[in-house]
Structures are given as C-alpha cells and as structure tokens.
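Sample entry (202 residues):
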Amino acid sequence: MFTGIVEELGEVTAVENLGDASRFRLRGPVVTEGAQHGDSIAVNGVCLTVVEHEGDEFTADVMDETLKRSSLGALGVGSRVNLERPTAVGARLGGHIVQGHVDGTGQVLARTPSENWEIVKVSLPAELSRYVVEKGSITVDGISLTVVEAGPDHFTVSLIPTTLALTTLGHKQPGDPVNLEVDVIAKYVERLLGDRAQGATK
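Predicted structure, serialized as tokens:
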C-alpha cells in the first residue's frame, strides 16, 4: 500500500521492448536505498516490482495490459517519473490509501497559475466520475491530491509550490496523459450498497 506522498522525482534511463511487455530502467537514489529483488515501487502511481537493482537504478517489467491501461506506455528515456516506496506498518498516513492500481487515464486540460499555487484541470473518464467528489481524494500520477471541483467529465486540483517543484505535475502541459486512481473506499461502499440493494429485492 502507498499513501500518494511522492518521495522523489526519478528518471527513465532505458526502455526495452519485450514484445508483449516492456522493461524499464529507472533512476531514483532515494527509493533504491535498501531495495531488493521483488520489492514494490510506485512509478507514476503504478505499483511495479523490482527485477534488478544496481546503484541508484532499478529495472521493472511492465506487461502489455498495464501499458494500455496507464500512461507508462508514453514514457521514454529521459522522462521524469514520480517514485514512492510502500508505506511501512505503523508509519503516518500522510496522504490517503493508494493501491497503485490505476483505474484509468486522464489528460491535463488547463493550468491556471496564481500567486502561491496553481489550479490544474484534468479530464475524467465517464466511468470514474461517480467516485470523484469535491474535497475528496484522488491520485494523479501517484500523487495524493484533494479535489477542488468535481465535474461530470473533469476535476480540478490546487497544487502548492512543493508539489509543483517535486513532482511531474510541475511539468505536465495541456494534452499530457496522467494516471488516475480513485479512492478505493468509494468503490467498496458502492459494491456494498449495491449488494444490499440486490438482497432487498430478492
């Protein structure tokens, strides 16, 4: 489990096409400290498994299904990525519960700068809109954020200078894809209420 608090801004150093998958090599001196084969690291919000680790770089295999369902397929050598290790048991939950399982992708639609923050508008797939509410939590490229406005096909988030400086959202431009993970609690509630409604009709 992750919390959506990005530990560092890493970089893709190599991409190898494996046919029905790709192998990424990524640089991240913070997240590779003490890393071992089989460990999990979230890359732009996608939970990946460490295959190899050498120095401040690690490799991870990404299957075709993940490439299609996330924005990882658009990454190339030199791309910057948000990196986070799983949260330790007993650690502070700085963001919200993040699984690293991307629900869909959106696109940056607009950026509106202010004196001390920036409003970013992101498109929202129709099938995910019911899980996104004003002042609720959403994960964008692995970053735990609070929804400012929730529309039927978009949402907005307000980014402080630290988020702009230390994550990919400081560099994303209109048209760029982002990974989205909605609050898993909302999905569980929907399932439970749906099961209860079905039981009442039997």
